[in-house]
Amino acid sequence: MQKVIIIGGGPAGITAAKLLLNSGHFDVTIYDRCEKVGFMNVAFPLWLKGRVAHDSVFAATADHLRALGASVHTQTEAIQVDHFN
């Protein structure tokens, strides 16, 4: 199984993680400096205006991604990647 590290748990990172995990050929690790992952950018203005509940603006939670097989590290800022390990 090939290792993949995804830096950033926003819409693009979560989409990539789901595609890789669903293929069954990748060991996926996600790092995000925020407390939660999966925030949908398109819902952000609606959330700010109070038109949608906070929990409804997430495309996937860390628990959901872990259930798919990902290793998820929140509140962790990636400042360097050692691509040889």
**Helical content (DSSP H or I, runs of 4+):** 25-40%
Give me the side-by-side strand order of the main sheet: 1-2-3
Low confidence ranges: none
Q: Strand count, sense and closure of the main sheet?
A: 3 strands, parallel
Strand content: 15-25%
Which structural category fits the helices and strands?
A: alpha/beta
Number of strands: 3
- Tell me the span between the first and last alpha carbons: 14 Å
Radius of gyration: 14 Å
- The whole-number mean of residue pLDDT values reads 84
What form results from the Cα inertia axes? globular
Number of helices: 3
User: What is the N-to-C order of secondary-structure elements (H for helix, E for strand)?
Assistant: EHEHHE
